Fold this sequence. Notes:
This protein starts with a helix and ends with a helix. The chain is built from 13 helices and no strands. Helix content is 78%, strand content 0%. The chain is an all-alpha fold.
Amino acid sequence: YVTDIANDLEVERISAARERLGHIEAFYARLKDQMGSVPDGVWPVEDAMVSVAIGYHSVGEIDTAVQLLSRAQAHKPNLRALEQLGEISRKRGRYAEAAKYFGDATHIQLDNALLTHKMHARLLRMQGEAVAAANQPQQAQRLFRDALGRWQNLIERHLGPAGGRLDERGRADLSLAFSERGRLFHQLGETRHALASFEQAVDVDNESANVYADVIAFLLTRGHYTAALDAYHRALGRDSVEEYYKVYSTLWIVLLARS
């Protein structure tokens, strides 16, 4: 069922995924009746609910997504559910509500300590953005600086190469850290440091199309055309960057150049 749900969501067969979720919930109910609890190693039912909820969100069925996310939370506090609920609240303009969801998510510990640290640092930035949108600039600045310190700690102690070359996962993690640091510097008004961090994000993982796309999108939407153009030219020279990204970025660059 877990594999089938993943396949259904990939091709947006949301109703089929919801039906399979019902089978999973029935399976969990039988396990509890027979064994008293769900054994370790079984995919948590709340994770299944969140996955299906994200599928509903992706096709615009927001109310159904919220219902499933809330049910997942009722089973057990879930970081992904809180993050999604926060994103939905933010998009609806309920910034104080979004900030609370993001803040609550930072209190949930995952099995992996490094992943927990990365997720909490990212959520602090998202909480800060929601707080800033709710016209609480001083609190937002504190959250941004807290998140910035956590990313800096990760870069210095965990994500940098320890006397050797980084593998693919390590490059992706370090690039994400530089990118997040760039976002936070930008929020704090430190534009020069922000642009330098985005350049480092590209330098670390210069074969990743996602890195170029994220950096270019962030820079263009905030008026940093020259820096975005530099990243765009670097992406054009990489065979690893799919044509889709190159064409999409080209159209965006040309549109802005004419405006």
